[in-house]
Amino acid sequence: MTVASSNNSFTATLQDLIEYPTSGILSKVLLKDQNSQYTLFCLAAGTEIDEHTSTRNAVLTVVEGTGNLNLEGKDITLAPGLFVFMPANAPHALQAKENLAFVLTLSEKSVKKQVVSQQTIDIVKSTANVLKQHGKKITTRMYEIMFDKYPEVKAQFDMSAQANGTQPAKLAAAVYSYATHIDDLDRLKAMVDKIAHRHVKTHVLPEQYSIVGECLLKAIQDVLGDAATSEVMTAWTEAYQALAEIFIDREQQIYQTVAH
Ligand code: HEM
């Protein structure tokens, strides 16, 4: 949901826009233009966002509530009125002690859009069959690693779809399609669109892509063993980042148009 358009001037009383979920995070994009995005985040008391990085410079301005921000290893107490600048790629983690509302301003990307090299395309395509063969094993392992290391993301998932293997199978199919069509991304549009809508419904955040990336790459390594050579891992790291950007961009568009 986007509250306002960047074509017109606009004022809002942030307190009126705050809505806390019973658990987890509710976010509202207040405004977005070509360079910046202003999002109101409302975190239920006790919500934790594990350490991650962002590819964009960010400013966090606390509106109400208290919490703790760990920025590059330093603890910062979050309280109303606090303004924190977080440079791109600075690791940070957050914990809401009480219901906590803040505005996060993301400014222009400081990291250039990922362009996938021909070498990466060739390597990724050459791994498509192996991924098809071991796909579900890899994605099952990836969720196992993720839920163990980042248990707070569990709240966003339907755990019965994990237990019966539906979700690992869907992720494996998506990864296989990507490996097959990495040089013809138009073929993936419908798939990206469907997944992105599901992600928006489940409040997936851009920052979470590094978590999934880390766990997916580790799972590929665990399952493929010696076949996961350093060339294969480098190619998949690059390819994953490019795919993550495709999802993040599409999800930002949907967040703007869909009330969630
Ligand atoms: C490039 C990376 C990713 C791929 C390829 C991917 C793929 C998928 C697929 C295929 C689905 C099923 C969609 C459907 O039911 O139609 C899905 C759902 C979902 N994804 Fe992702 N995803 C990615 C990243 C993420 C990230 C970063 C998160 C954040 C934690 C996430 C969280 C979810 C959630 C919560 C669901 C709904 C699952 C449920 O209902 O239990 N995904 N994803």
TrEMBL record:
InterPro entries: Cupin_2, Globin, Globin-like_sf, Globin/Proto, RmlC-like_jellyroll, RmlC_Cupin_sf. One of its GO terms (biological process) is cellular response to nitrosative stress. One of its GO terms (molecular function) is heme binding. The keyword Plastid does not apply. CDD domains: cupin_HP0902-like, FHb-globin. It holds the Pfam family Cupin_2. It comes from the Bacteria. Residues 115-252 form the Globin domain. The keyword Zinc-finger does not apply. SUPFAM superfamilies: Globin-like, RmlC-like cupins. Keywords: Heme, Iron, Metal-binding, Oxygen transport, Transport. Belongs to the globin family. In the C-terminal section; belongs to the flavoprotein pyridine nucleotide cytochrome reductase family. This is Putative globin-like protein. It comes from Hyella patelloides LEGE 07179. The lineage of its organism: Bacteria, Bacillati, Cyanobacteriota, Cyanophyceae, Pleurocapsales.
